[in-house]
Known about the structure:
The protein has 603 residues and is of the alpha/beta class.
Amino acid sequence: MCGIIGVATKNKQAISILLEGLEHLQYRGYDSAGIAFIHNNGIQIIKSQGQIEALKQKVDLTINSNLGIGHTRWATHGRATTNNAHPHQCGKITIVHNGIIENYLTLKEELQQKGCVFQSDTDTEVACALLDDYYAQYQDMKQTIRQFMKAIQGSYAIAAICMDEPNTIYAIKKDSPLLIGTSSNQNFIASDIQAILMHTNHYYLLDDLEFAIITADSTLFYNQDGIEIMKEEKEASLSANSASKACYEHYMLKEIYEQPTTLKATIETVTKLLKTNTSLLSRLASYKRIDIVACGTAMHAGLVGKYLLETYAHIPVSVELASEYRYKQNFLDPQVLVIIVSQSGETADSLAALKMVKEKHIPTLGIVNVVDSCIARSVDYVIYTQAGPEIAVASTKAYTAQVICLSLLAFSIAKQKNLLAETQIEMIEKDFEQLPELISALLANRDDYKQIATNLYSHSDIFYLGRGLDYALMQEGSLKLKEISYIHSECYPAGELKHGTISLITEKTPVIASATNSILDDKTISNLKETAARGAPIYLITNNVSLSNDPSITKYILLPSTTDFVLPILVSIPLQLIAYETALVKGCSIDKPRNLAKSVTVE
Ligand code: G6P
């Protein structure tokens, strides 16, 4: 959470580079923003509550500056006010920070005893004051940073400017992402390459407990002992356009409509990887249990993976929330594979769970979207989903890419173990091939979902029901609606509703359900009738044509008949569009819902 950027340039355009970069980092938090830049031999700071637009109103773009740092915030310590917004300044030091300083209260007391007066409620201001305190002692930034790293507990990606060195930015990192971008006559620091892609796709990754010294024509890297280190230059394959909104009203809509392409790319890449790396596949097939560990939507993708891996590959799977898994007894041994699923590859709890597992020497596989992210670099094996940059906070194309990846794993392992008949294999392979077309057909019916949205938007509670695989899918459908439309929704296994929660069902609680399993459909329909009997309008997603005659159902969404390996994607598309259209009718901030952030780098 929080996005940071910095630039040292000879072209005097630092301010516009910072503002443009911050726009691309807003997915990391957007409750306040600020920049600090060198001007008239001093450091000028401009901050604002709210999104970057509000900050832009305060900035004079005609000012020339060769160096600056910027920040977009997701509040942790202190409310989202202008005062708490970054950059923070103490004495000669100005910083922006992403992360959490865990021992900030102790440090704050020590600094207050030395006479330091704090202006904000943030942990960042304490970090800034500590840097200034060390700088006053050492008069040397390298020495200052080394002492700082020893004193600080917690996570940080920091960009710092010292008043005595107006041509230099210092970058310091532990547990929060930070990269250094390079091009001729200007160098950058950023939380994510997307922030600087319009200037360069060449970059260096800073590792934990390293720091860098950046000027317009040099980048130097150091370890925590202050010894200079060499780093490998990387080149991002993304282009600046890949993160644009194109002609769509929202990033979320664009990302929903990109799914035929992103899924095709993911299917091709993962199929090729599993076909060519036969030793990886035999290893994957040999594990006696799999723990899938993730947060949020990625955890929901894991639930679908569990169903497919257990049903078809005959491997018991446990799906765990990373924030719980990392602190509990897990009964791990080398016969257990831990799969970490993560779009960003930097979610704090998923990363911490991964570290815990690695310390026990348990094999790990990452299913990750962002190339070279912390999780991707830390796992034993990585499979990259090919969703491309996902900007909308509510995940759509990254989720379906994770699901298809797990589906391909289940299929490949089942084949490897000879658990599928030849005819089944042929049908499944045909389904994977046809999937992009099937999705395009569903996406062509946007008006259907607009209609459903006009029926849903005024309700304050909506129930999502399903059994088996449908239950796993409904959990994500329910989350999507909550995230962006702010309508409360509950997801329940259809058979469990009567054990208490049915007391909440009335004509004011619409029910959205899916029934796509011929063995369970009748049972699900009986449960839906129980809700219809209490007045609830029912919206049913199904691939079973015979269900479409039932008068107790308000509206059907009929899916083509497919195997379970692609079915989860087909169910997800209507759920995404129902959430999107409902939020649209309500006039919500779809791409940046309140209180959320896309990349959660705090516990
Ligand atoms: C945040 C996002 C969710 C995401 C979750 C896990 O909560 O808002 O959309 O599913 O983090 O993120 P990851 O990057 O690990 O998939």
